Amino acid sequence: MNDLKFKILEIMKEDARKGIDVLAAMLDESEEAIQAAIEEMERDKVIVKYAPIINWSKVDSDKVTALIEVQITPERGRGFDAIAERIYLYPEVKAVYLMSGAYDLQVEIEGKSLRDVASFVSNKLSTLDSVLSTKTHFILKKYKQDGFIFEDHQDDHRMLVSP
């Protein structure tokens, strides 16, 4: 990847709404060069989606998000990829990561309720042949996502008391 594309990505990861004209001015390049670079990165699936970061706690939403640690037996010839693909094809699965350490995959899912998440784990995920064990963690509150802090920082205005 050339330097121009990397610079475009660095700017766009902070604000993907910046126009071609603004990117061109910031990088001292022509608008045509910026447009061509972005189109090439979209074609090559370097840029796969433009999406906002949403603070769902500010929206009247009853979504439940869980992170599931999954230990699996890799398949001969395909390793972890085959089971990861079976898992990420479920619509409730938002992300799947191959991990190092105590477990093999981390699966992020969203459900309408705790019961939906429990049902997914017990009826879909745990029943897959390669799955040895799961451990589910529910997200109670998000403080920061993709570098963005959701809550305003509150300074501590209490008086210092010392003995």
TrEMBL record:
Coiled coil: none
Signal peptide: none
Listed InterPro entries: Dimeric_a/b-barrel (IPR011008), HTH-Siroheme_Decarb (IPR050684), Tscrpt_reg_AsnC-like (IPR019888), Tscrpt_reg_AsnC/Lrp_C (IPR019887), WH-like_DNA-bd_sf (IPR036388), WH_DNA-bd_sf (IPR036390)
Residue spans crossing the bilayer: none
Superkingdom per UniProt: Bacteria
SMART domains for this protein: HTH_ASNC (SM00344)
Domain Transcription regulator AsnC/Lrp ligand binding, chain residue ranges per copy: 70-141
Pfam families (UniProt xref): AsnC_trans_reg
Descriptive protein name: Lrp/AsnC family transcriptional regulator
Source organism per UniProt: Marinicrinis lubricantis
